[in-house]
Amino acid sequence: METKILDKQTSDKVSFISFIVPAFADAYKMNVQQAYFYLKKYGGWDFLNEHWWALHTDNVLYTLDDIYEVCHENGGLR
Predict the structure, then answer these.
(1) Is the C-alpha dihedral spanning 51, 57, 60, 66 positive or negative?
(2) How far apart are the first and last CA of the chain?
(3) Do 71 and 37 form a contact (C-beta atoms < 8 A)?
(4) What is the distance between the alpha carbons of residues 61 and 10, in angstroms, rounded to a whole number?
């Protein structure tokens, strides 16, 4: 079986998203699975994937607020 190694940018992106989704879940009183589906449904997941590089440089509280605002603008109610 061939082992593939992720490039640095992909590894950083995975690390950031693996950190921020549980942080979002904690901040908005969800479990991680609920947070993932919420983000997928209301555009937060696409926002994270597209803008992760800028988001990872910001304060976690501001990042969570930005993600929440994107979801809220797309119909999220939490």
Answers:
(1) negative
(2) 44
(3) no
(4) 23
Q: What is the pLDDT of residues 54-76, one digit of tens each?
A: 999 999 999 999 999 999 999 99
Give the global pTM.
Answer: 0.87
Radius of gyration of the chain measured on its C-alpha atoms: 13
Determine contact, residues 56/12, Cβ cutoff 8 Å: yes
- DSSP letter at 77 equals -
Rounded to 5°, the CA angle 74-47-11 comes to: 155
Reduced to 3 states, what is the DSSP secondary structure of residue 18? helix
CA distance 78 to 10: 30
